[in-house]
Amino acid sequence: MEEKVPLFGKTLSELQELVAGYGLPKFTAKQITDWLYKKEVKSIDEMTNLSKKARELLNANHTFGLTEYVDVKESSDGTRKYLFPTAHGKFIETAMIPFKDRKTICVSSQVGCKMGCLFCMTAKQGFQGQLTAGEIVNQIRNLPERESITNIVYMGMGEPFDNLDEVLKSVEVLTSEWGFAMSPRRITVSSIGIIPAMIRFMEECEAHLAISLHTPFHEERQKLMPVQIAYPVEQVVEQLKTYDFSGQRRVSFEYIVFGGLNDTPAHVKALANMLRGLKCRVNLIRFHPVPGTPLHGTDEETLQQFKDSLNSKGILTTIRASRGLDIDAACGLLSTKALLNKSAPS
């Protein structure tokens, strides 16, 4: 028996192609997007303005496609980490991060990750599969805080540019008038810098871009991030300098600060030289210990000096607040490795 295909996550053009294949009127596709993305329903039978024939055809071949979270942990700072099941018995984590008047949702794009970055728990999990656009958007649709979300960041489990087709479709669902109609300026997609995918992203998507940089020195970054061999960050930055960031679209650089490794005046100088001429922001991130790595975080005084030194050289630099540390929801700590052989959390 063929597995039924979820409707949730499909774009308007995909639905137009689908209904045409069933011999249904073209306008049926727009009706379906209204039910999927505009209304609080969870079944095909609730799509009451569709013909009986249309609902029967859809029910025979499709599911609605929503998946509820199965666990939630709450931090002392109000951050919540949700656990979602995915296809084929895997799990992903999604973080909701409240800060002042903002609520940011940090979504995953893959189950695990292939990239092997030394400082990341998701990397230690390895790679178990791609998420569909529906599974990405589902992380937002099925949160209790959905109505009060101000920002979405693709900074959870996985490398978004290693699943670019589905990531782009998910952003299309979130930003299109027929979808959730969010501004792309409220969405940031993070990447370690896969250049061909980055070029396509810049051409096809209006969301903000964040690049994981972590050191301006080639050999040092290669030890931290194997991707440096294939796509050196120097080339990533040079490519970004060909785009116009004078408008509302932003590019930022994530920089985890490791004690005694990438927190020296030489790093400040090299980083400022590398980014000169590019309108951007640097986000400094405290390192949260990951088992099995020799890395450790820098001290607060050095972190502040690093920030001040970059700002003095004309590079807008801030320190990102660490949130959700006590529930392993902070940067680099998301992992469902412990659940790989389980069907549900205990």
Largest sheet, in brief, is: 10 strands, mixed
Strand content: 15-25%
User: Whole-number radius of gyration?
Assistant: 21 Å
Question: Considering DSSP H and I runs of 4 or more, what fraction of the residues is helical?
Answer: 25-40%
Cα(first) to Cα(last) distance is 31 Å
The run of helices and strands is EHHHEEEEEEHEHEHEHEHHHEHEHE
Tally the beta strands: 14
What characteristics describe this protein?
alpha/beta, 32% helix, elongated
Summarize the SSE layout with pairings.
Blueprint: E1 5-6, H1 12-21, H2 27-37, H3 52-61, E2 62-63, E3 71-74, E4 80-85, E5 91-99, E6 102-106, E7 110-112, H4 121-125, E8 127-130, H5 133-141, E9 151-154, H6 164-175, E10 187-191, H7 195-204, E11 208-212, H8 218-224, H9 227-230, H10 233-240, E12 251-257, H11 265-275, E13 281-286, H12 300-312, E14 316-319
Parallel strand pairs: 1-2, 6-9, 9-10, 10-11, 11-12, 12-13, 13-14
Antiparallel strand pairs: 3-4, 4-5, 5-6, 7-8
